Amino acid sequence: MSQTPAKNGCQCCVVGGGPAGVVLSLLLARKGVRVTLLESHQDFDRDFRGDTLHPSTMELMDQLRLADALLEIPHTKLDVVRMQSPAETVTFADFRRLKTRFPFITLIPQTKFLDLLAEEAEKYPNFTLKMGALADELIQEEGICRGVTFRTSHGEEECRADLTVACDGRFSKLRKLAGLEPIKASPPMDVLWFRLTRKPGDKLGVTFRVKSGQMAVILEREDHWQLAYLILKGGFHELREHGLDHFRQDLAALVPEFADRLDELTDWKQITPLNVEASRLTQWHVPGLLLIGDAAHVMSPVGGVGINYAVQDAVEAANVLTERLLNGTVTDEHLAAIQKRRAFPVKVIQRFQEVVQQRIVKAGLDDSRPFRPPWFLKLPLIRRLPAHLIAFGVSRSRLID
Ligand SMILES: Cc1cc2nc3c(=O)[nH]c(=O)nc-3n(C[C@H](O)[C@H](O)[C@H](O)COP(=O)(O)OP(=O)(O)OC[C@H]3O[C@@H](n4cnc5c(N)ncnc54)[C@H](O)[C@@H]3O)c2cc1C
Predict the structure, then answer these.
(1) Residue of 14, 130, 168 to mutate, ligand 1, most atoms within 8 A of C-beta
(2) Does residue 371 share a domain with residue 357?
């Protein structure tokens, strides 16, 4: 594919204002690329969509001189994750040893992160943000994608562009329109997200608790506890049938520290189920269209790496594309180069997630035998691996500035 610049359009149309789309738009806009970002929602507000910013994302923010502003937003820091079972407590990931200015995971509302980046991007006159804009068709000319049509409350419009980047998430419409089919894995679990009040004097810290076929990750947030309760895949319906009382009793057995506040859970609506999926495309591009973030690879929640990997895709895409978009010389080979840089780290982390799912999650949810943390977590060298993989991946993507 050789792309000649679209006559009246922007140079890059980014579809989807999640972490991948907002970061990519900002990185391109600050270098002068004419970029339009289309987001179907009217705001960036999301509940339980991942609020974890990993060291690599914080390093990028630092490079953009946004880290300090970000850290002024109320947040909590997670520097070590311990797995507690009746048998023993082992360290699952210790970020304190990482060589970085940010040896921790920053827990910050995703909406605040995206707001800050979008505000930064809006300082550039060559950046256009269209909220409430739902992309619905690819504009195809001679087999090359030349942008998208999108719907707003004002009707149908089009965004013509030299390159379109699909950052439209796990249910990517553009992926379907391009005829790309991901390879799917079968994670053994689903996750229930909910909140409980945080009281003065609570001493729990970030915990990964396993007991009698039950498992939960407990995250310390500014003013509440965020819980991820793991269940066997497809088990939510059965859990609901047993009733909320039963669920509260199970929780009290797993996390007795919260027994005094489980009556806060009065309605299943307070509990957000996540149908855990994992998949990846074998081809991330067609002429004129690149897919990154969840649109290219849906991540299991193990390690909370979805945002991190979406942001790193955006960094590599910006590294390869910025100059070429500016002078209208993007080719298929450049899109393939982005996939080449990112596909391997994605494959490795997904393999790591599969191991954790099988050796820890599946074993922990099996109530027929006592859970024992896998032996490899106790080997000093291997013990460092989860923190490094979760924080940076196998290769550390850095923005070429
Ligand atoms: C319940 C839940 C909990 C999670 N927890 C974590 C966590 O703790 N840590 C973590 O790192 N990850 C977590 N994730 C995963 C993480 O949210 C994703 O991996 C990450 O957001 C991917 O970023 P993205 O930009 O690729 O896609 P998304 O964040 O999904 O963004 C896609 C955007 O595209 C927009 N869009 C979709 N279709 C269109 C269209 N046709 N036109 C215009 N806009 C469109 C959507 O509105 C959305 O804003 C969680 C996910 C879920 C569902």
Answers:
(1) 168
(2) yes
